Fold:
Amino acid sequence: MDEASFLEGYDPRKYPAVAVTVDVVALTIRDGRLCVLLVERGAQPFAGRRALPGGFVREETLDQAALRELAEETGLTPGGSSAEEDTAGGHEAGSELDRVHLEQLGTYGDPGRDPRMRVVSVAYLAFAPSLPEPTAGSDAARAYWVPVDEAKDLAFDHDQVLADGLERARAKLEYTPLATAFTGPEFTIGELRQVYTAVWGEELHAGNFHRKVLSVPGFVESTGETTARGGERGGPKPKLYRAGDARLLHPALLRPTREDRVR
Amino acid sequence: MDEASFLEGYDPRKYPAVAVTVDVVALTIRDGRLCVLLVERGAQPFAGRRALPGGFVREETLDQAALRELAEETGLTPGGSSAEEDTAGGHEAGSELDRVHLEQLGTYGDPGRDPRMRVVSVAYLAFAPSLPEPTAGSDAARAYWVPVDEAKDLAFDHDQVLADGLERARAKLEYTPLATAFTGPEFTIGELRQVYTAVWGEELHAGNFHRKVLSVPGFVESTGETTARGGERGGPKPKLYRAGDARLLHPALLRPTREDRVR
DNA sequence: CAAATAGTGTCTGTAAGACACTATGGG
DNA sequence: CCCATAGTGTCTTACAGACACTATTTG
Structure:
């Protein structure tokens, strides 16, 4: 049966129900460590286990569903989590949420990934600047940031989803300027380098990194300012930069040569 | 509502029905042109319009659903298209279908993309070696290969899906050896170059391409043989190669420097 | 002052692209 | 014989990484 014939004679009640959810791999950097937002599950199955935040898709686009879930779990956008109406139109002028990068990661739909029914989950990947612990807010009390190397044994197939998200994030830092999505609106080259070292888990040569970043057109642009103070343990006041207008890095910033080209 | 609370009190009948389909962007190269597999729609909506092959997801993984749709539309795997049982277990030892590369492309789920109900479609991208026109087979009579630059005004949001698939394919040729998925099991460097020019739509310098391909470890390996005859308009008998064991090209084969790093 | 960081200079190996050239075989 | 293609040589430019070095600021 192809799509055409399916749509001709389609009757929803003839087929087993399928639920569509979104799950979000939200990454941020806290204290120099790459962290992911997790929630504690209260109910079966996987009660007590940690899981990626996510939920049912309503009358909205998939992107909107992912943004809504992220907002609810981080407690960032004041948009009420109680409203049951169509959220397609508006959530209030979000604060830090506007600086969050959100993209689709992949879709996970193996039969049996949820023991109770067929659930197809569209996973999203989010890059966020350092955010406050979400416990402050209302109903997001069960969510918290966990260093990615401590995020194991997640519910459902979320270990795999997280692994896919991390690999995507590492690859994206190579050829896009998305590292700036982890920083504030103004940042130093050193802060940018810390993003790379946190995500890649590898030390980078400070001098070469500095020159490389400035040589890629459109990656960063100078604000003309410097920080008010030098580093905590000394050093000159570094210059401040903004994200540039490039959407692709050319030439790319390749990860340290893992001779391990996968065979 | 997050996933945890959704799963606690979930009742499928409380929510509007959602259908999940797979659609396949199947690409091949015919007569030096990049072509996509399309089907003619017989029923409303979009009757008479062309669309990507696809269909309803059954009790199977999403990957299996995509492979099954592709098999049915190309008429390649003898596996019956009439069987209604669980296909998770087996399709017969497929012929050319084993050489097809299949990967998930993305998921499209805007409300209203199908005028009758909420349909979330998981799109797949397939790279196939030159295949016979599928009209030969049974129920695949409505499917045919169309040069991608003539594939316009497709049904649903398939123009967008196709565009995303093409961009993915072009990018993948840069850093993976997937160009070999478009060729037969043995190929010449010239044939491989034709894959690149067809997909990228750009001429490549034959000499530099030749040296570059051979210099990337694991991209191709020599069979020690040459073709039986030279080119149609003369020339030496080129050597034959097989796909190597690399899964990533290092260093990558970058597209001709579009100074247009996207801004 | 000591230590740490920002930022620059320089050198080396590798890779990409431009161009030229030889060799081979079909029409 | 003509011409297109296979395959190689060489040169120039660009870039990545290693290393060294100076300057600046905090404790």
Observations:
- Residues 188-190, 206-207, 210-211, 230-239 of chain A lie near DNA strand C (CB under 10 Å from a C1').
- Chain A touches chain B through 62 residues (CB under 8 Å).
- Chain A is about 20% helix and 25% strand.
